[in-house]
Amino acid sequence: MKETRIVTFSSPYGVDKTSLTLYLLKTYQKFSFFISATTKKQGENETNGVNHNFLNTEEFKELVIEKRLIESEEVQDNIFYGTPFSEIERIHQMEQIPLLDISVKGAIEVKKKFGEDAINFFLTANEVDLERTIKEQSYDSEKTLAKRLAKADHEMLLASMNKQCFDFTFNRLSD
Hints:
Layout: E1 6-10, H1 17-27, E2 31-33, E3 36-38, E4 52-54, H2 57-65, E5 69-76, E6 79-84, H3 85-93, E7 97-101, H4 104-114, E8 118-124, H5 127-137, H6 142-161, E9 168-171
Parallel strand pairs: 1-7, 1-8, 2-7, 3-4, 8-9
Antiparallel strand pairs: 3-6, 5-6
Helix pairs in contact: 5-6
């Protein structure tokens, strides 16, 4: 049997994939944390090169132009995230499996580029649970909340239109 080269977890906004990926990283030593590239502002408790590779917009766009990213996406106005090929190589050199906490669009791109070498999990939720969770997590205005709900709906639709790109789907918020 061929060894898995990449594992991704994706979900619409509001389904907590990060807690699951952190649990797997702590529990299984074969997985390694994947460091994404981003233009978001570095948080107080974040370290460049540990949590993310923090870049300015020009540096990020250069990676896109040079085709050094597996996928990239503008997740909010002028805030980009991307998956560098170099991170996959770094983790494989350590003889580990990259574990990606990634957008739905990103997971689809990973599957298109890596085929059977990637195992993609999609974490879903029913509409009622998803809306409740987004409202509970949101400290934003009604306008921002509406944008997040619309984005979650779009991601659910995108995943359903690309079912062939997901190896496993399960409901993350069910009791």
